[in-house]
Amino acid sequence: MFLLCETPIDPAALARALTHAGAGACATFEGWVRDSNEGRRVVRLDYQAYASLAQAEGARILAEAREKFAIIDARCVHRIGALAIGDPAVWVGATAAHRDAAFAACRYVIDEVKKRVPIWKNEHYANGESGWLHPDNTPVAELS
Amino acid sequence: MRLRVLYFASLRDRAGTDAEQVDSASADARGLYAELRVRHGFAMGEERLRVAVNGEFARWDRVLADGDEIALLPPVSGG
Fold this sequence. Notes:
The complex is a heterodimer of chains A (144) and B (79). By secondary structure, chain A is of the alpha+beta class. Chain A contains three helices and nine strands, in the order βαβββαβββαββ. In chain A, strand 3 (36-37) and strand 4 (40-49) form a beta hairpin. Chain A binds chain B through residues 31, 47-50, 52-54, 56-57, 78, 89-90, 110, 113-122, 132-137, 139-140, 142-143, and chain B through 6, 8-10, 12-13, 44, 47-50, 52, 55-60, 71, 73-79.
């Protein structure tokens, strides 16, 4: 399950929904909105997404995680719209019989989401300026 | 042919719209982006972008057809 949501993320509720009798481990990751970036004071963020492709690519990443690691389930929720400092921006949860697979799947999902899912962050700074972050200055690889 | 183009993030701000109809004779997505760079003054070269056609990632040499929806995707910054 990969979801984009316009309402606040509730990490406790998302983790509870992963409950499974066979799960001996649940690894979760939360990305939060931070008040600074590259030395600039950040006051709030906007996230924009290409929703249909973001959902499809997010679902592909979760399917890859299920293939690569011995997990029971993996889920990810990403906020879009306006966020304040401290808000959870992204949540990943992975359950497995044992911790190694849960940690590895959780790490894989957040890393791939940040690399591949068409979502963009607009930072609003304390001085009134704002800017879209396109942090990858390296060439974007073409599909092979 | 008539195409629909979707813009995101800095490209959306620069174009001043999230989507527009474009009449183009460009053979492929690369040619279309070159045309749109001139029209809107986009600074980023195609090597920094990805392109999607009709909702799926595509290559820049993807041949376009009348009615296609092309999304221009700057480097992503989710998470």
